[in-house]
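Hi there. Long-time user, first ticket. I'm pasting a complex I've been working with (about 1054 residues overall). I'd like to know whether the download I got is complete or cut off, because the file seemed smaller than I expected. Thanks.
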Amino acid sequence: MAKDTASATQKQSFEEFCHQAFDPTKEFSKPEALKGVRVLSCTQYILGPSCASYLAELGAEVIKIEAPRRGEAMRHTTPFNEPFLYPLSRWVPERGTGLGFLGANPNEYFISVDFHRPEGQAIVKKLAAKSDVMVENYRPGTFDRWGIGYRQMKEINPRLVYCWLGGFGGWGPGRVRASYDILGQSQGGNFGMTGKQEFLGGAPSKHTIWLADYWGGMMGAVQILAALYWRDKVSGEGTFTEYSQVHGVTRQLEYALPLYGRHGITRQRWGNWDTQLCVHGIIKCGKSSYPGSENPQESEEGYILISAYTDEDFARLCKVVGDVKMAEKYAKTENRVKAQSQMEIYPWLEKWAADKTKEQVAEIMDKANINNQPVWNAKEVANHPHWVQRGAVRWLDDPTFGELLHQGPAYKMSATPPRLKWALKPVGADNELILGKLAGLSTEELRRLEEQECI
Amino acid sequence: MLLTCPNCKTKNFLDPYPFWNFKGTTKCAGCAKIWRIETSSGACVKGPDAADGQPDLLPGFAEKQDYSPISGPGLTRPAPRARKDAVCKPIPIQRNIRGNAVSGRPLKKEDLIGSRPKFIAGRK
Amino acid sequence: MDTPKVPSWPAIPIAKPEEVYAGLSDQAKDYPLYLESITRQEKNFEKPEALALLRVLDCTTSMMIGHWCSSQLSELGAEVIQVEPPGGDPLRKLTPFGRKEYMFKDKESGEEVGGQFLHEMRNKLSVTLNLETEEGREILKKLVVHSDVVIENGTPGQWDAWGIGYRQLREINPRLIYCWVGQRGQWGPLKDKPGMLEPTAQAACGFVHGTGDPKEFGGQPTRSALWMADHVGGTSAAMGILAAVLYRNNVSGEGQFIEATSAEAIIRILDYSWAWYSMDGSIRPRYGNWDLAINIYAVNPCKDGYMMVGGGHDRLWYRIWRTVGDEQPAVEEDILGDLHLRDVTERLAHDMQVKTYTMLGEWLKDNPRSEAERKLSKQQVASGGVLYVNEVAEYPHFKYRGHVAECDSPHYGKILYGTTPFLQHKTPGRLKWLGRPVGYDNEDVYRRLLGFNRDDFARLSQTGVTHEEEEEEEL
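Hi, the file is complete. Here it is re-exported in full:
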């Protein structure tokens, strides 16, 4: 043992220090940042649920309220109708929860309440009276009409941070429009810019995952945390936040709006290349990394990002490819980055990579000290030692559904790490625990409400 | 575009992305007749005319008038698949890829303790 | 060639409340008008800022994740000091296809900045500091005494080796929240693999492989046009920072070390990819503009572009086909008669999706985006066209709510930009200014926080701590 721990710490390599500070296997030996914060999640689909789940990862007690028996709509979504996790609820054991639900609701308590009925609304009020945050994503005005919206809740609990998330926002000409993730992407602007170039016959492309939802949920969580800071540090008061996901998407269009406003130019799709840097694009490698595999995701050709946008890097790239002419022609950044130049440079690189796998290209690039990143599929990511060691993807022993691979939290904290406790629970799994504890319902009342399908 | 085969009445579903603006041949998944068509903005502007040879592009899916499905190698274009043996209907799963228990098959009430499957809740 | 005249924005005037809510009963107007009264951005400056007490040093450079993170905090009121190397962050020089004429010029000095960097320089102060010099690092230590948060993106271990890493700075300011941001991480087997700029992270996390058309449709893995993983990573870093601030204030009194990467932020939100693989070895495929897990829920071509139609449950499914049936009764009849399409989950099979969207196309081909949206909206179906930037900028709903706005910068003139979506009743986010020339705030920040005088400034610029040395020599 070192005599002086302080100096031993200093001698520890930086990587060891980081590994120890962020070790995913030590998460449960540390406190939680949001311990004691209670969040009511009256949400469905992904935008609202994911917002609450990020707080649940940080240790908030998140109570998710769903419709009795069959739960919310997202439980009935799963890729190609294949995998489900059973039971859906103790009342419907022959059906399962689809994987579309997964990732948006970890660490939460699941109760079922029918919002439509006065008895259900009374329960929600009792819970909100004891909560710090309420997240809600029903159509604007629905909760207000039911007497459980911001106007009513702020009277019951002035410290409540009430967060509404949705597509278009609760006011303005489009306020009644329903929305989903890809509608937010379509109308916010990032959809029309993504995908293969028009002149190559390409169409606009959505971002996979429900990106505007999952990222929008993070935006909601940022806003909630800021509101809690203001409440705890300054005012003692809650507030109302409104997040429109289409607004969020428009916020992230980089130079597109300034360019349009100044020059009237509409940013177009530029496929897998980059409008501002060259070489900085994804190219096709002609050979599959797994030619023997029967999985079509593995037998298809590989792709790789090659990034050599400085003059020095590009010169080295040309040396690797063995082309003096290109090195001379495109020696200068300002020549390379032009649209016409890019149209020559990337096909030239793809021709060179036509007889190689993405790993072979990566190895050549690594040796030449040229930045690169193979395009990895889900299996490659899940098994990569880097992501495994960092806990980005990890095996979870879920108390209800058994052993699953699951994503870890998005970021790491040394003192109060966010963590993963369980992936999800069946509909109404925590009715007794939560409604007994917070709404004061007796066993008899619980049974009656259950029989009436009010919970 | 929906191509009802003039020969056998099979409904060939020419899915929108590849067939929205298309000029070439396709093959009826019901009777294997080759049809030359031209589409513009999703509408058929020429054809279907009988043709020969190998089809340029197969339909995405097809069905008979009584809704019985027709799909498969040589008939329709392959589906994107996550696995070799994708079936597109619920599959019972009890073990994950490393052989450990996972609750991926339908249950009965007696399989549960509270809301949890017994074989997960009770396992050592 | 003459540059065409660009019409001023907005080309079509913004609607007035009387027009928007015309014909509604008082009861129907009540809730939207209430929301409008508490969240309209015009009232932002009548309200306090949530993070007004927080000071953040953003020392990141040549990467967007850190800038994105700090803009979230600066929009919510934090004082963000953007620490740039002398001469400015290299990202300032980026412009589409290298076109200088698309850059924004400082009226006074003629210094240029690209639109992407400018768009994230919201409410931030710009100071220059050369951290490669000993004196620069000493100055940073002094700034840290006055700061709540520092964000950096040095190569792994660089700041630690310089004596300004988390281990050293926490001794100077135990309340400091220290956040490192990057593409793949500062520890682990890939820590030294280079690559600063997106789409590096997108490619490394499974996102690119899963986006775009499948090979079976003639497609390939596709990156986001945007440096998307940096945006998601930056937001997740902001989340971690604010959680750490809350814990410090409410519980521990101490700061901590945070690490956020663009790739892991996307891994977190790649929904079921990992669980699906673990259950039966499935590798998430691309599915173009359709959805693996929901039908109807897709973008498909229509008469004048591309149209999103969505209805994940039965009620909406039948409403969509009723709308279609108004014009194409045979299509509705065929769909309703098909037993394979009766159950929500059975519709997810690939064959059923092909049928669904081919049949929907029979209707979409006759309907432009606005018509399709009008007809489907009547049935409360989520729908809308894919909009291009020019359409986004002029979209009536967005203009009315201020999703897009123009700011009049004292340096760069009028700039169209996407406003903060942090609408709020009591402490909303806002824009105070957009963009600053390099080192514009040196004088203010170094005097106010560190008490520098004019001799200090002269010395620092001569020794290359705040200014590029070469420039001095050239003069």
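A couple of notes from our side: Confidence is low (pLDDT under 50) at residues 1-5 of chain A. Chain A has 21 helices and 14 strands.
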